[in-house]
Design a protein that fits this description.
Elements: H1 23-56, E1 59-61, E2 66-68, H2 71-87, H3 89-99, H4 101-120, H5 125-140, H6 142-153, H7 157-182, H8 188-206, H9 215-218, H10 244-255, H11 259-277, H12 280-284, E3 293-294, H13 295-298, H14 301-306, E4 316-317, H15 319-342, H16 347-371, H17 373-400, H18 407-421, H19 424-435, H20 438-462
Antiparallel strand pairs: 1-2, 3-4
Helix pairs in contact: 1-2, 1-4, 1-6, 1-7, 1-8, 2-5, 2-18, 2-19, 3-6, 3-18, 4-5, 4-6, 4-8, 6-18, 7-15, 7-17, 11-17, 11-18, 11-19, 11-20, 15-17, 16-17, 16-20
């Protein structure tokens, strides 16, 4: 229950006034919704900057070596930051089990704010890379901290995951949308600094949040499934990992069972997610119907004069940025549907169906784009939903296939797979686009989707009847 400080469950949000959500659940869900939205605001604004950096920078200077800037080069730069976002989740998961979630979430918010200030001050691509690394390190602790908090503190776990995912998608969609709007009027460096302000406010807010982090476990509502689907509860995990020896023991225990297969699923999800999104704005801008619209022709003269836009200004509305943002906003529906379904169908069935849909959409995306804007909008909306439909399923699957005592470690490995290994999706996409074709990229994405679907089907067949 909230003690001294801010009861953030009192936030004026309809989702948090539901009768079936208790006050401790509301407090936790409100905090993780806020922080999750911030994390994905920054994460998915970066691809919009990528299309600018392709023209802004000619070389990446590494002292005595200079590398020309291409999609492959930027893919590696972005992968470095996104990779740390994932790799840092593993030590973050260990820290969660030792010191709790609230402190790490607060540090995450302040760290992300600092990284985007540095990004706005970057004079060259090397400093951009350093800023992205700082962002990745700060953001990496969020998912093990936030998801451990949900899985151990919230009694309505599936609903909590759904609301958490919705907030992430709001940040995912509105962050890039806000970025695109601001870029109409100011330089990308100014936009980056402005984007840092919400995280500073959120960090100050999080410092005063109070709640019971283990309410669901204390109430006896938490159990995990071992590799055979049996309940293992808290008897297979204590209160976290205190040494490298314990880390090794608990890690081997996790991967000795079906969690190893769950790890394959989350890697496939990360590779698909990063592979399709990192260069999506850049891919879209070459399609018919996505030509830049000069700001002076899109807005009345009185408005452009008031905004200080000169008649010969090169500032333009870039439709691909708004399509990209819209696709991500639609993901709210997928998150909500996925979260609700985790409480109604076997999570393994959700993995099989969701990843199968992702594989199909990868195969039809380019044919739909070539068929016209209408078919592309339909497929884009379906892709936005499917990308995020699978997330509540694999998050809940981790909870079922891991013990509560090392849940933070489990989610640390999960986001090592999703955002660490998954970050390679950006480098893979950049390399394919530089040396091959978009068709080859989407075929590769379909293979990632098929892998996740196949593992889901295998786990479903192994699942014991209730």
């Amino acid at each position: 229950m909230p003690e001294n400080g801010v009861d953030i469950g009192a936030l004026n949000c309809p989702l948090l006034r539901r009768a079936d959500v208790n006050s401790n659940d509301r407090s936790i869900v409100a905090l993780v919704m806020l922080a999750h939205g911030m994390v994905h605001t920054y994460e998915l604004s970066i691809p919009i900057f990528v299309s600018i950096w392709l023209t802004e920078f000619d070389v990446l200077s590494l002292g005595i070596v200079e590398v020309g800037v291409t999609e492959a080069t930027l893919g590696l730069v972005v992968t470095a930051g996104y990779g740390l976002f994932g790799v840092g989740a593993l030590p973050g998961g260990v820290l969660v089990d030792r010191i709790g979630s609230a402190r790490l979430i607060t540090l995450c918010l302040f760290g992300m704010a600092g990284s985007f200030v540095l990004l706005g001050l970057a004079p060259n691509l090397l400093v951009v890379a350093l800023a992205l690394l700082l962002w990745g390190a700060a953001a990496s602790v969020y998912h093990p901290a936030g998801l451990t908090l949900l899985s151990k503190g919230v009694t309505e776990r599936g609903t909590g995951f759904a609301y958490h995912g919705i907030a992430g998608n709001v940040g995912t969609g509105l962050g890039p949308l806000l970025t695109a709007i601001l870029l109409l009027f100011v330089d990308w460096t100014v936009v980056s600094v402005l984007l840092a302000l919400p995280a500073l406010v959120a960090g100050a807010y999080a410092m005063r949040a109070r709640f019971d982090e283990t309410a669901a476990v204390d109430a006896g509502g938490d159990s995990a499934a071992d590799s055979d689907g049996e309940s293992v509860g808290d008897d297979r995990g204590g209160t976290g990992v205190a040494s490298l020896t314990e880390f090794g023991v608990e890690s081997r225990r996790l991967f000795a069972g079906a969690f190893a297969l769950v790890f394959v699923v989350v890697m496939a999800s990360g590779l698909y997610y990063r592979g399709v999104l990192t260069f999506l704005p850049n891919l879209l801008e070459s399609l018919p119907g996505f030509e830049p619209i000069p700001l002076t022709s899109a807005l009345p003269t009185s408005v452009t004069d008031a905004l200080g836009v000169q008649p010969d200004s090169e500032r333009a509305i870039n439709p691909e940025r708004y399509f990209y943002s819209g696709l991500l906003i639609v993901g709210v529906l997928g998150q909500y549907l996925g979260g609700k379904l985790t409480d109604r169908i076997p999570v393994e069935a959700g993995l099989a169906g969701g990843f199968g849909l992702l594989a199909l959409l990868a195969l039809v995306f380019l044919p739909a784009a070539n068929a016209g804007l209408g078919p592309l909008l339909v497929v884009g909306a379906a892709l936005g939903c499917a990308l995020f439909l699978v997330q509540p399923f694999y998050q809940a699957t981790v909870a079922e296939y891991s013990p509560a005592g090392t849940r933070g470690l489990s989610y640390g490995f999960t986001y090592l797979g999703v955002f660490g290994v998954g970050a390679l999706g950006g480098a893979i996409a950049g390399t394919i686009l530089t040396y091959a074709t978009p068709a080859a990229l989407f075929l590769t994405l379909a293979m990632f989707g098929a892998t996740g679907s196949g593992v889901g089907l295998y786990l479903l067949r192994r699942r014991r009847p209730a």
